[in-house]
Design goal:
Layout (H helix, E strand, L loop, with lengths): L2 H9 L1 H9 L6 H11 L7 E5 L5 H10 L4 E6 L9 E5 L5 H11 L3 E6 L9 H22 E12 L4 H9 L2 E7 L10 E9 L18
Helix pairs in contact: 3-4
Length: 216
């Protein structure tokens, strides 16, 4: 990490506010702002967080669903315990992790959220394609897991494959919007897909529907 990057972070409004409020990540405010705009969560609801480390989104989700709600999360990295939240460590692209997570949920979810990101390669087209692939896995998980009427929020990197992917999402949700919360850095290529009103149909073929052809 460069000294310049560290100095900029120390001056970052959301970084400082996260420290003040004991949130684990400045990204907590992205989900907070998305929920303020789109009303994703409800008291007593069930939420699954994909790519949950270090736990900032889990904290917001638990606040919003309250003590009677259920929040579960998964990540490749270890997640320190959060009261009232259950987590597992695993790879969401692997079937065994998906099954373990659904077993932990023990029922249907009202909301699936995903802040998953690929390891940045430095190649914009490759990073975009990998981001779309992660979103495809999140979409397939949502198809298998959401209750009718449920919502899906996922981060995606902007690029030339996004419209094709949005068309896939619209097959399963009555409302699909792109949104950039104020807490996102202006230099970032990330944007969030906010899909509401899950139609609850039979699962389609999922990630195989997306065929990135620019990963090299």
């Amino acid at each position: 990490m460069s000294k310049r990057w560290l100095n900029e972070r120390k001056r970052d409004y959301y970084y400082l506010k996260a420290k003040q409020l004991n949130y684990r990540s400045r990204a907590s405010f992205k989900l907070h702002q998305i929920d303020e705009r789109f009303h994703i969560f409800k008291e007593g609801g069930s939420v699954v967080d994909l790519g949950a480390a270090p736990g900032g989104w889990l904290q917001i989700a638990k606040e919003r669903v309250g003590p009677k709600g259920k929040v579960v999360g998964v990540d490749l990295q270890h997640i320190d315990p959060i009261e009232g939240v259950r987590t597992i460590r695993g790879d969401m692209t692997k079937p065994e992790t998906v099954e373990a997570l659904r077993s932990l949920l023990d029922g249907r979810a009202d909301v699936v959220i995903s802040d998953m990101s690929p390891n940045i390669s430095g190649s914009y087209s490759m990073d975009h394609a990998r981001s779309v692939d992660l979103c495809a896995h999140a979409l397939e998980f949502a198809r298998q897991t959401l209750r009718p009427g449920g919502s899906l929020v996922m981060k995606i990197f902007e690029g030339d494959m996004i419209n094709e992917f949005l068309a896939e999402v619209r097959k399963d949700f009555s409302s699909v919007r792109l949104h950039s919360p104020k807490a996102s850095r202006s230099s970032s290529s990330e944007i969030y897909i906010v899909a509401k009103g899950f139609k609850g149909g039979a699962p389609t073929s999922g990630p195989a529907d997306i065929h990135p052809d620019n990963q090299d």
